[in-house]
Amino acid sequence: MIQVEVYRKKGKICGFKVEGHADYAREGEDIVCAAISALSLTGVFASEKLCNLSKQITQPEEGLLSLEMPTGLDEQQQQTYEIILETVIIGIYETAKNYPDYINIEDEGGEYSWN
């Protein structure tokens, strides 16, 4: 099962961690793992590109990806980073709605609902 942890400070998203494997299908055919990986890595690439940041991760570990908002961002970068993180998490929630037996989400006070 894929475990997702969403980190928030004062209700605002500041990062997430995705760990594990869905085991929905064989390696190379697992659409649940592929979806979560694509969403997570899109968050990494978008934060680097749209916030003008250096590499957020050098090489994702097998079955583990973590992304946290760095300190020292200006207000515009921080807002952009939050939007990117929330977009990734919304995509993960929507995927989990379709594959609830393969994805578990722990969200520290998030406002996104399953409905």
From TrEMBL:
<dbReference type="InterPro" id="IPR007422">
    <property type="entry name" value="Peptidase_Prp"/>
</dbReference>
<dbReference type="Pfam" id="PF04327">
    <property type="entry name" value="Peptidase_Prp"/>
</dbReference>
<comment type="similarity">
    <text>Belongs to the Prp family.</text>
</comment>
<keyword id="KW-0378">Hydrolase</keyword>
<keyword id="KW-0645">Protease</keyword>
<keyword id="KW-0788">Thiol protease</keyword>
<dbReference type="GO" id="GO:0008234">
    <property type="term" value="F:cysteine-type peptidase activity"/>
</dbReference>
<dbReference type="GO" id="GO:0006508">
    <property type="term" value="P:proteolysis"/>
</dbReference>
<protein>
    <recommendedName>
        <fullName>Ribosomal processing cysteine protease Prp</fullName>
    </recommendedName>
</protein>
<dbReference type="InterPro" id="IPR036764">
    <property type="entry name" value="Peptidase_Prp_sf"/>
</dbReference>
<keyword id="KW-0690">Ribosome biogenesis</keyword>
<dbReference type="GO" id="GO:0042254">
    <property type="term" value="P:ribosome biogenesis"/>
</dbReference>
